[in-house]
Amino acid sequence: MSVDAATVRRIAHLARIAVKEEEVPHLQGELNAMLAFVEQLQEVNVDGVEPMTSVMPMEMKKRIDAVTDGEIVDLVTRNAPDADDNFFLVPKVVE
């Protein structure tokens, strides 16, 4: 896959980056080099390779998946203009 000058201009437009006309050939070469590297990476056989978070063996830190109220309900609802029984009260907007 290769990028032409029109594609470079379109990418710059979508990214909201001002690119001068004399910069387009350089950027075209840079983008083509990146895409060539990605294509080269796709050739690597990764069968049997486990995903890792670091080059050093370690386990990801995990928290217990438990539902709690945060134990600060009173502090949170204290900021509400109107609250009742630890719930925010809002005005009715739909008839």
UniProtKB/TrEMBL annotation:
- Pfam families cross-referenced by the UniProt entry: GatC (PF02686)
- Catalysed transformations (reactions): L-glutamyl-tRNA(Gln) + L-glutamine + ATP + H2O = L-glutaminyl-tRNA(Gln) + L-glutamate + ADP + phosphate + H(+); L-aspartyl-tRNA(Asn) + L-glutamine + ATP + H2O = L-asparaginyl-tRNA(Asn) + L-glutamate + ADP + phosphate + 2 H(+)
Which UniProt keywords are listed?
Answer: ATP-binding, Ligase, Nucleotide-binding, Protein biosynthesis
Per its UniProt entry, what is the enzyme's top EC class, as one word?
A: ligase
> InterPro entries in the record, alphabetically?
Asp/Glu-ADT_sf_sub_c (IPR036113), GatC (IPR003837)
Q: Which domain of life is it from?
A: Bacteria
EC id: 6.3.5.-
In its keyword annotation, does this UniProt entry include ATP-binding? yes
Q: Which PANTHER family match?
A: GLUTAMYL-TRNA(GLN) AMIDOTRANSFERASE SUBUNIT C, MITOCHONDRIAL (PTHR15004:SF0)
Protein family per UniProt: Belongs to the GatC family.
Q: What's this chain's function?
A: Allows the formation of correctly charged Asn-tRNA(Asn) or Gln-tRNA(Gln) through the transamidation of misacylated Asp-tRNA(Asn) or Glu-tRNA(Gln) in organisms which lack either or both of asparaginyl-tRNA or glutaminyl-tRNA synthetases. The reaction takes place in the presence of glutamine and ATP through an activated phospho-Asp-tRNA(Asn) or phospho-Glu-tRNA(Gln).
What is its quaternary makeup? Heterotrimer of A, B and C subunits.
Q: What is the name of the protein in this document?
A: Aspartyl/glutamyl-tRNA(Asn/Gln) amidotransferase subunit C
Organism of this sequence: Tardiphaga alba
